[in-house]
Design goal:
By secondary structure, this protein is α/β, with parallel strands linked by helices. Helix 8 runs parallel beside helix 10 and helix 10 packs across helix 11. The longest helix is centred in the last third of the chain and has 19 residues. It is built from 11 helices and 13 strands. The two termini are 31 Å apart.
């Protein structure tokens, strides 16, 4: 397997796949408006929608990632849904495997499952019946079971958290649903190399993103596995001038995280589509090929329109011949 700068240089000239993250804007009772949003996303060339997943976060907020993905896959014929990330440690893997198989029947090849340990709200974990201290081990075991169930063959399993006898899920997902691991640090590297088809990062610099990609590739090679899906979710403010975009992003970050926008400045981007595309370009050099823009804008449709412009700008740059003018 080729790694290092040569591999990144080869990746650099492949088109990047870009989508947006939406939750509340899609989880509405107005079916016509929901379809309008989905159609607009597709029309501007965006390929996927990333949805989150929380059982009961910070006092009760949340949305079910599998259900949100279903609303996308059933509402549009070509858009892909990425669950980023699904709190698999809070669910039984047999149930999750059945949900994935059912979704694959209605939308084969259009779902990506991101899996991680989730947020830092301990009450969410405890109230779901899980000891927070065991969450990582529980996730690892669930990932192992999911991959075995995806074959469609009966399995027996005796683990720390789950026991299965002649467990089987039919029909198996065809093609198999890719599993990408969320998180950071050595644990995410090891978990991706052991169980994942890819890795998705958030709140990291381009340098750190590239270092993590190289570590994952090396660790996977040691296990005689190949990991090729590398994605990034980034909060972006999009507006027709940089000042307005920075204000929009700052207001959203302050509201969600109760921290000053300066805390996130080096791992977010804000401005016109040209400004945001320039901020994202180093991540492409670092190996990112699946980008999710978590957009703060004046309206959902304005954000979609400008995210499409970011996509066009980045793909023009990635396909630009070496040494030619940009």
């Amino acid at each position: 397997m080729t790694t290092g700068p040569t591999a990144r240089s080869a990746d650099r000239h492949n088109p990047v796949e870009i989508g947006v993250a939406l939750n509340d804007d899609l989880l509405i009772a107005d079916g016509a408006e929901r379809r309008s949003i989905l159609n607009h996303i597709s029309e501007v060339g965006l390929g996927h929608i990333t949805v989150g997943d929380h059982v009961s976060f910070h006092g009760g907020a949340g949305f079910d990632g599998m259900v949100a993905a279903t609303s996308i896959l059933a509402g549009h014929d070509t858009l892909q849904a990425i669950i980023g990330v699904y709190q698999l440690a809070l669910r039984h893997p047999m149930i999750a495997a059945r949900q994935l198989a059912t979704l694959s029947q209605i939308a084969p090849g259009r779902l990506v499952l991101g899996a991680g340990v989730g947020g830092e709200d301990r009450s969410e974990v405890v109230n779901a019946g899980v000891d927070p201290a065991t969450r990582g081990r529980r996730l690892d075991e669930a990932l192992s079971v999911l991959r075995r169930l995806a074959t469609g063959e009966p399995i027996d399993h005796d683990g720390e958290f789950f026991t299965l006898r002649t467990a089987r899920i039919l029909p198996p997902p065809t093609p198999r649903v890719p599993i990408v691991i969320g998180g950071s640090g050595d644990v995410a590297v090891r978990r991706t190399a052991d169980h994942g088809d890819g890795w998705m990062g958030i709140f990291c610099s381009a340098r750190r993103f590239g270092e993590t990609v190289e570590k994952i590739r090396a660790a996977a090679a040691e296990r005689s596995r190949e990991v090729s899906w590398f994605g990034l979710s980034m909060w972006v403010g999009l507006g027709r001038d940089d000042t307005a975009a920075r204000r929009l992003l700052g207001e959203r970050m302050q509201s969600l995280y109760s921290l000053p926008p300066e805390k996130f400045r080096h791992v977010t981007a804000a401005g016109t589509p040209e400004t945001v595309a320039a901020a994202l370009e180093p991540y492409l050099t670092a190996g990112a090929r699946h980008l999710t823009l978590v957009v703060a804008s004046e309206s959902v449709h304005e954000g979609i329109e400008m995210a499409g412009e970011v996509r066009s700008l980045l793909n023009a740059r990635t396909t630009c011949p070496e040494g030619s003018a940009r």
